[in-house]
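Hi W., the alpha-D-glucopyranose complex you wanted:
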Amino acid sequence: MKNEWYKEAVIYQIWPRSFKDGNGDGIGDLHGVLEKLDYIKSLGADAIWFSPLYPSPNADYGYDIADYKNISPDYGDLDLFKQVLDGAHERGMKVLMDLVVNHTSIDHQWFQESLKGKDNPYHDYYFWRKGKGKDGKKPPNNWLSCFEGGAWEYNKDLDEYYLHVFAKGQPDLNMDNPKVRDEVKSIMRFWLDMGVDGFREDVITYISKKEGLPNGFPLPIATGVEHYNKGPHCHEYLTEFRQDIMKDYDCFMVGESPMTNSKDALKYTAGEDKVLDMMISFDHMQADCLVTDTIVTPFSLKKLKKAFTNWQNDLYGRSWNALYIENHDHPRVISRYGSEKFWKESGKMLATMCYMQCGTPFVYQGQEIGMVNNHLTSVDQFKDVVTFNNEKLFKKLGFSDSAYLKIANRTSRENARTPVQWDKSKYAGFSTAEPWFSVNPNYTDINVKQQEKDKDSILNYYRKLFKVRKENKIFIYGDYKEHMHESKDFYVYERNYEGKKALVICSFADETKTFRVPAGFDLTKGKLLLQNYKDAPARANICPLRPYEARVYLFE
Ligand code: GLC
Ligand code: CA
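Structure:
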């Protein structure tokens, strides 16, 4: 297996609006990031991935970009960004930008030009189409957007519709147009020339739409997705980006790819013609839901294990995993897969379960202190286009306001977007002014300052875990073998590397359960590298495991 920096790295994700407000206007910004670089480094982070920092009208909080080569005034400016970039580099951390090129914002100059008429050179940057039906008033096909009703928006002046597979404010770029692909490469070069180290490529497997834009199989949302996810020219366009860029730069690329299994991922991330270094997958984020977070099911440990194990087994030695359990698109993981009651134990256990696997850890802001879901008291406190869209869908199905509020509080990605809880002062030390979005009221108990002081905190556990991972290459390069797959309580796997073995034991039970060590292991001979309870655990090979207990043993 080839050693590359990203394989040994820990990547910290910043969703800038809620990270830290440095200039007192209630909105997180790059001043705040600059203040916190030492903190990020102290976790053991080797790179920062910034969710979009570009100018945006915020139809989707930055994922609708109005200018790809600039910084939003909400967050600072290019000079301030350069200071952050230098500051990160001085501390040995790389910087990754979010590259959102499936769509732009409607405020982008290209889209504004495209509105000027069919002869405008930018018209063909997007999917403008005539309506269907006798009077031409029906949309060009039956596609539904992922975020906001139908996937086509009508423009009266042009008497045409434009395609948006996300929100109305996110018109899809026509990647079949070579000029658009040149623009993408020019954006990449702009940031790489400034010194950025790579990109997280947003919904990158959506960039090629099937010719003729045929009708899709009817679904409640995202009808048509089979015609654009991993579409006909997707691999080809990504090859073009990769080859063109990699000849001049050492650029890291991780691509987000919804609805992709581990076998598909290999086509993009393995072998000589790989187009991405890794893929952000979704299978393991569906252990308590179907397809989207909104359709909830009871949490299934077996589903979780199956998803992780498939990716671990299929990618080992061929490609590389992106290990994550939180980002800005999902509710907080303790509230989903762990337990708010066993908050500290489950927070540490979930980190152990995920990051002792083979792959690169991605940590999302606030995850390292065990931030949990928020509980808003009325639907009008929400801010996100997805929450609004779901509200419409659920209301159509007859759900009341209060019934939908419950669903949103459990499933909305806004749970991950509350301001980071730095201390117990007003507004959680995030800002001196009222923040743009509500602070979780539990900030007086859960905050960075308190956890800095507490040796036993979730924060200090994350630090230790990443140290252990760095000091023991087995956790980076070792193979993975799952045990006790049928267990509904335990997730157990071993790692093997250069004659050493490690055993990772995680309990998902909320009560003490008896654990039998898998054949071939003797816990009394192992070195206990990590554990999430303060007092020493039983060392026998048949022993009780306490609620959400996690242990990592090394056998040399
Ligand atoms: C990705 C982003 C998400 C965004 C969507 C549309 O899934 O992570 O936040 O809303 O793409 O750009
Ligand atoms: Ca600010």
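The first strand starts at residue 11 and ends at 14.

W.
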